[in-house]
Every structure is written in C-alpha cells, then in structure tokens.
Amino acid sequence: GAGVSQTPSNKVTEKGKYVELRCDPISGHTALYWYRQSLGQGPEFLIYFQGTGAADDSGLPNDRFFAVRPEGSVSTLKIQRTERGDSAVYLCASSLTGTMNTEAFFGQGTRLTVV
Amino acid sequence: AQKVTQAQTEISVVEKEDVTLDCVYETRDTTYYLFWYKQPPSGELVFLIRRNSFDEQNEISGRYSWNFQKSTSSFNFTITASQVVDSAVYFCALSERLYGANSKLTFGKGITLSVRP
Predict the structure, then answer these.
(1) Average pLDDT, stretch A63-90?
(2) Beta A75-79 vs A19-24: how paired, if at all?
(3) Are B4 and B107 in contact (CB under 8 A)?
(4) pLDDT tens, residue by residue, B63-98
(5) Which of A19, A107, B6, B87 has its CA 20 to 30 A from that of B38?
C-alpha cells in the first residue's frame, strides 16, 4: 500500500484477555518500529525490527508484550493478560533503512482500550 | 539518556498569526538528528522537517521555518501566517542510536496548537 496500515483501528478488550495488533509497513521498508502513545504524551519506543529480527526490544514494558515479523514485512504486536494500564494508542512506523537520517512513516495507530 | 522537552503544552492563535513552537533536547551523542512531526486529529504522525547535528543553518520551507542552535540545545519551529488546518499536536523528536547506524526516536510530550478563524 501507499502508507503504513494498522488494523484494527480500535480494539476494546476485557482485562485479562489476549490481543493482537497488526502492522503493514510500506513496501520495501526494512525497518519497522512499534511505539505506544498514552493520552497527552508523546510516543514511546517499544521495539525495533530490522528485517525479520527484533534488533532492539528494550522498550517492551514486560514479558506480557511480544512482537513478531516472520517474513520481514507484516508485524504483529501481541499482548497477553491485558491490564487497564495497557490502554493506549499503539503506533507502527517503518523506514527504508532504519538509519538516523531516514524518516519514519507512521500509521494511524490502533487505539486499545482495556475495560 | 536522551530527552526532549517541549515546555509549551497548548498554544492558541488567530489565523494569520505567526507561531513558534519550542523544543529543547539533551543528548551525549555528537551525531544526531532532530525532527518535527505533526499529529492531526486523525492520529497519524506526519513528518515535517529533519535536521542533522552538523548543520546549524536555519531554513525556510514554505510557511515553515526552523531555528537550530546547538549552543542552547534548541530546535524551534515556526509557522508563518498560520491557518486553521495547522491545528494539531506537534512533536519534536530526537534520533537515538540503537546499534551501528540504526536509530529510534525519542519524542517530547507535544504541543497542542489551535488556530482560530
């Protein structure tokens, strides 16, 4: 597609449930990022993929969060045993190379609400 | 650790006014990039401008201009003759090295700009 696509756009789930959030990056972009944006805050880094491998997952808050990118394109962010504090907008971004001088293109995000 | 501070939280102006958004950053890296992103109500972050740490030349691009000063670690962004469509949240961001040449972004908290007709 022309831009980064994220599905679903909105997800409401009950506390304790498992959720998956999907990201379709721009075709040909090798770098893919997940960020989390809480209300009134800037996006915070979660995890970075270069190709198929998670090159840096230092931003994942705990082991309930996991992400994969098995074929180096689509990525899925998985959250187990969701908690109310996980409610936020989850943003995906991709860039051509992942180096400092390449801009990241963001999707519209998935708004996750845990009730 | 890297840090980006956007001290202004909300700014309201009348259409056609000029408005400057402030950004102060902290980093130990000697090579870094600074960015401004716009987030309209639709939620998508839109890239506006990028500047590298070796180039302090200030530029103008249409109604946008930016003032990068390493001496004060500031990267301010000005919109000239603001328009209602400029209403959005504006984020300043700093690239942070991960490994090798790869990087991630550290964002400020954002400034909500409202432009009234």
Answers:
(1) 97
(2) antiparallel
(3) yes
(4) 999 999 999 999 999 999 999 999 999 999 998 776
(5) A19
